Each structure stands twice: as structure tokens, then as C-alpha cells.
Amino acid sequence: MKVFETPLPGVLLIEPRLFRDSRGVLLEAWQAERYRREAGISLPFVQDTVSRSGAGVLRGLHLQHPRAQGKLVLVLSGAVFDVAVDMRSDSPAFGRWFGATLDADTARQMWVPPGFAHGFKVIGDHAVVLYKCTDVYAPEAEIGVAWDDPDIAIFWPEGAPVLSEKDRRLPRLADIPRHTLPRMADAGRGPVA
């Protein structure tokens, strides 16, 4: 397994070891001790979420506060441009983003820590994405920011996105009151009991 730091502190790219033979490919998508030791991911995962999306679908940008979720993102089929945005109001990297292509062929993963918004856009005709989450989905804690916020200025892949009505109505970062956003101290907490 190889772990790469990104320009956005806390966000990691992880390349698991792939075992290829005449039958296909085998990989360990998650092994708690190895990921703790080699990537520093020690929060427990309590929910796995799978999304299947068609061509051009853009999901995001979503986060929760309270009940912050860290997400380990893996593409099971197809490819996406995966994005994390630092939403911690007291972070020096507040409002900065990082994006990378994740695809089923390489099994590259992205670790999106608690306190970061997450989203992706499908590259190609479809994608099946698995995210391991450090807290359960809590609709009452859901926050989002517009995918096309000019202050964040994400360089999404070409083409008009297919959006849900909910994602189409998300506010710009400048329109979200800072006191409603997570702080750096909130980001390391595990699931709420």
C-alpha cells in the first residue's frame, strides 16, 4: 500500500496493493491495522454507502456538522473526479480544495477527513462508488456548498453536470454563516453515540 499526502492537509490518496493473476484482481480495500499504521486513519467506520451514478452525474458538495463524517472513497466500477473541500472555519486551508481521478482499474482511494465537504463527478458512462463513513448519515446535520462556487473554483471535468434538485440549490460558501461550520477541534471526533 502506498499513501500520498496531498496539498490539502489531512486529505490522502491511497493506492492499495493489487494482486493480479489469470483470474482477475484481488485487493484489500480496508484493513484496520494497516490503515492506522500506514495512513494514520484510526477513526472507526460505522457505515458503508454505495452510489451508482450515470454519465455526467455530479454529487456534492456535502458534509455533516455536527456528526462529522470522515470518508474513505473507493470506485468499484467506472471512474470519478473526486473532490474534498476544507470546511473547518478556523483552518488555514478553509475553502481550499483538492481533486483527483479515482477509478476501478487502479483502486486508488481518497481519505476525506471529518470537517471536509466531499463530492464527485462521473467520468465516462457510469460509476459505482463505495464510501466507508466514520459516522452514520444524519439528515438533520447535513450541510452543503455549491459545486460551482466561484470562491472555491473547482476545476471540474468538462461537460454540463447532472445534478439533483437538492444539490442545485446548495449555497455558496460566503453565504453559509461561519458559526454553523465545523472547527478543527470537531474534526477528530468519532461517531456520536
TrEMBL record:
<dbReference type="GO" id="GO:0005829">
    <property type="term" value="C:cytosol"/>
</dbReference>
<dbReference type="Pfam" id="PF00908">
    <property type="entry name" value="dTDP_sugar_isom"/>
</dbReference>
<feature type="site" description="Participates in a stacking interaction with the thymidine ring of dTDP-4-oxo-6-deoxyglucose">
    <location>
        <position position="137"/>
    </location>
</feature>
<comment type="subunit">
    <text>Homodimer.</text>
</comment>
<keyword id="KW-0413">Isomerase</keyword>
<dbReference type="GO" id="GO:0008830">
    <property type="term" value="F:dTDP-4-dehydrorhamnose 3,5-epimerase activity"/>
</dbReference>
<feature type="active site" description="Proton acceptor">
    <location>
        <position position="62"/>
    </location>
</feature>
<comment type="pathway">
    <text>Carbohydrate biosynthesis; dTDP-L-rhamnose biosynthesis.</text>
</comment>
<comment type="similarity">
    <text>Belongs to the dTDP-4-dehydrorhamnose 3,5-epimerase family.</text>
</comment>
<dbReference type="InterPro" id="IPR011051">
    <property type="entry name" value="RmlC_Cupin_sf"/>
</dbReference>
<dbReference type="InterPro" id="IPR014710">
    <property type="entry name" value="RmlC-like_jellyroll"/>
</dbReference>
<dbReference type="GO" id="GO:0000271">
    <property type="term" value="P:polysaccharide biosynthetic process"/>
</dbReference>
<dbReference type="GO" id="GO:0019305">
    <property type="term" value="P:dTDP-rhamnose biosynthetic process"/>
</dbReference>
<feature type="active site" description="Proton donor">
    <location>
        <position position="131"/>
    </location>
</feature>
<protein>
    <recommendedName>
        <fullName>dTDP-4-dehydrorhamnose 3,5-epimerase</fullName>
        <ecNumber>5.1.3.13</ecNumber>
    </recommendedName>
</protein>
<dbReference type="InterPro" id="IPR000888">
    <property type="entry name" value="RmlC-like"/>
</dbReference>
<comment type="function">
    <text>Catalyzes the epimerization of the C3' and C5'positions of dTDP-6-deoxy-D-xylo-4-hexulose, forming dTDP-6-deoxy-L-lyxo-4-hexulose.</text>
</comment>
